[in-house]
Automatic annotation (TrEMBL):
This is ABC transporter ATP-binding protein. GO terms for biological process: L-amino acid transport. Residues 5-237 form the ABC transporter domain. Pfam families: ABC_tran (PF00005). CDD domains: ABC_TM1139_LivF_branched. Belongs to the ABC transporter superfamily. Keywords: Amino-acid transport, ATP-binding, Nucleotide-binding, Transport. It comes from Methylobacterium currus. PROSITE patterns: ABC_TRANSPORTER_1, ABC_TRANSPORTER_2.
């Protein structure tokens, strides 16, 4: 199995506060890897370090066989490393189409951008019908779809999603995880940070649990779902109770 992203011995600190401690993680090409853990475990710090938003204190990040630890955010975007941040970060004063065009700021193929935007509207008809309206008109779930669409315009090879289901209705959560599966079937590798542990384990090919900046559990999602420690700490059910994977 080919490794697309290889994180080795990564440590991240904010002043005297350590967010990640000597963390190593491999993301196979074409897979979905879920990162689980409580608030403050270091999940978002890991995504930011991979995206280049924060610089690690030590360790290295290798993408597609090339060390990118010292590379800036634009270079990583150009390589196909794209982050959909927690909270979506939609520019609500811009139109839906203008938000999508933000994702194309490094591209130099206007015809390709137009085709990709048309494909986003085909996938998300609600966005297409309101393309010239301000993004503030969208519901939370629609804004999340716009955030994913904006990321797709950047043509990701690795798509990183930070708490994509946060604040969404149960119906939109189902749509979101169906979308994650569809994007992965289209060949996009996905690194998913998600508090909805049951849904994350259901969609992932592999999973890892972070605690205080370290990976404390990792492996097959079905096996992790049956682990009493994960069940009690993150799934909110008694040990021995079956997981609702699908």
């Amino acid at each position: 199995m080919r490794i697309l992203l290889d994180i080795a011995g990564l440590s991240v600190a904010y002043g005297h506060v350590t967010a990640l401690q000597d963390l190593s993680l491999a993301v196979p090409e074409g897979g979905i890897v879920a990162l689980l853990g409580a608030n403050g475990a270091g999940k978002t710090s890991l995504l930011k370090a991979v995206a280049g938003v924060v610089r690690p204190r030590s360790g290295r990040v290798v993408f597609d066989g090339r060390d990118i630890t010292a590379a800036g955010v634009p270079a990583r975007l150009a390589d196909g490393l794209v982050l959909v941040p927690e909270g979506r970060r939609i520019l609500v004063s811009l139109t839906i189409e203008e938000n999508l065009l933000v994702g194309a700021h490094l591209r130099r193929d206007p015809d390709g951008v137009r085709r990709d935007i048309a494909a986003i509207y085909e996938r998300f008809p609600n966005l297409g019908r309101r393309r010239h309206m301000a993004a503030s008109c969208l519901s939370g779930g629609e804004q999340q779809m716009l955030a994913v669409g904006r990321a797709m315009i950047a043509r990701p090879r690795l798509l990183m999603l930070d708490e994509p289901s946060l604040g969404l209705s149960p119906l939109f959560i189902e749509h979101l995880f169906a979308l994650i599966r569809a994007l992965n079937r289209d060949g996009i590798t996905i690194l998913l940070v998600e508090q909805n542990t049951a849904q994350a384990l259901a969609v992932a090919h592999t999973a890892a649990v972070l605690e205080l900046g370290r990976i404390v559990m990792a492996g097959d999602p079905a096996q992790l779902a049956g682990d009493p420690r994960l069940a009690e700490a993150y799934l909110g059910r008694a040990a021995g109770e079956p997981a609702a994977l699908h």
